[in-house]
Amino acid sequence: MIARIARGLAGAALGLAIAGTAAAETTLTFGGSDAVGSLLDRANARFSELATERSGGKLKVNFISGEQLGNDNQVIEQMMQGAVHLYGDVLGWYANWVKDFAILNWGFTFDDNDHVQKFLESDAYKALADQLRESQGIRILAAAPTQPRVLFATKPVNSPADLAGLKMRVPEIRTYLLLWETLGTSPSRLAWAEVFLGLKTGTIEAAEGPVSAAYAQKFHEAAANVMRTDHLVSTYHVTINEATFQSLDAGLQAMLLDTAVEVTAWARAQAESETEDIVGKMAAEGATVVAVDPAPFAAKALAGVEAMEADGEWSKGLWQQIRDLR
């Protein structure tokens, strides 16, 4: 409760500061946390440029690329406090604050981009977005599916049996850790920027990620076995601090919403057009790309759904509700 009041006071102060300079150009900080040149990094830069251009001199959106402001959780926390105004990345990070976002991080829940899009248009998703805005002061402007996440390993993985005991990197999201435990690995948390070195030194033996982001980080050079498990469909979204959003006039609010819808749609189209090309580049650069049979992996993940719901990782019945959207 105290933290929520503090966020509210900080947000109110931020709103007054921005409103008080409405006649002049207002600078908004857009925090990034993806590898420079990756798809989401390019999308964030695109949003920042378009929003600045379309504001008619009222806004300057300053995009801070890479992890200059910290990792994903740190940038999100800065946005909650009002030190960062905008953020763009995958939706699954919000599971750390709104538990049902964790469903986006459970393998083989979504079949493809169209399936994710149906979820993003559902009442269930709207309720999660509302909860995030009301409890944490973060408004999702727009979101879209992007690319499959694939597995990189220092040894071939052709079946779940090959995952047994594998030292697997996972992000700081509890559901990821539980998923890869369920699939048989020995997971540990490691920052995204440290994955390449971890694979090269043997600290970890495997990692996973969206095709474009992983290519930008050169995972395939450190772990030359690339398995097309396509276990998750990644997403891209743009969020804004709610106090900041409310301090802007209606015209700027509408512009930011429209620009976010446009840029997330662009990211989806770009992702779909470049996925196979980038996988081909990995192979051309020496990686062994394997189209594994996903069915045994999916069956093992499915076996963990009941336990996840019993432990309260997400609301009971949500997984089946999403499967029924297909």
Number of strands: 9
- Report the oligomer: single chain
Could you describe the largest sheet, including whether it forms a barrel? 7 strands, mixed
Compute the number of helices.
14
Shape: globular
Low-pLDDT segments, ≥5 res: 1-6, 15-22
Q: H/E element string?
A: HEHEHEHHEEHEHEHHEHHEHHH
Q: What share of residues are in beta strands?
A: 15-25%
Mean pLDDT: 92
Radius of gyration: 20 Å
Q: How many structural units, i.e. domains? A: 1
Q: Classify the secondary structure makeup into a structural class.
A: alpha/beta
CATH architectural grouping: 3-Layer(aba) Sandwich
Give me the CATH fold name: D-Maltodextrin-Binding Protein, domain 2
Straight-line distance between termini: 39 Å
Name the CATH superfamily assignment. Answer: Bacterial extracellular solute-binding protein, family 7
CATH class: Alpha Beta
- Helix coverage percent: 40-55%
What are the salient characteristics of this protein?
alpha/beta, 9 strands, 326 residues, D-Maltodextrin-Binding Protein, domain 2, globular, 14 helices, seven-stranded mixed sheet
Descriptive report:
The protein is built from 14 helices and nine strands. It has 326 residues and is of the alpha/beta class. The protein has one domain (2-323): D-Maltodextrin-Binding Protein, domain 2. Strands 1, 2, 3, 4, 7, 8 and 9 form a seven-stranded mixed sheet that branches. Strands 5-6 form a two-stranded parallel ribbon. Helix 2 packs antiparallel against helix 11 (250-284). The two termini are 39 Å apart. The relative contact order is 0.17. Residues 1-6 and 15-22 have low confidence and may be disordered.
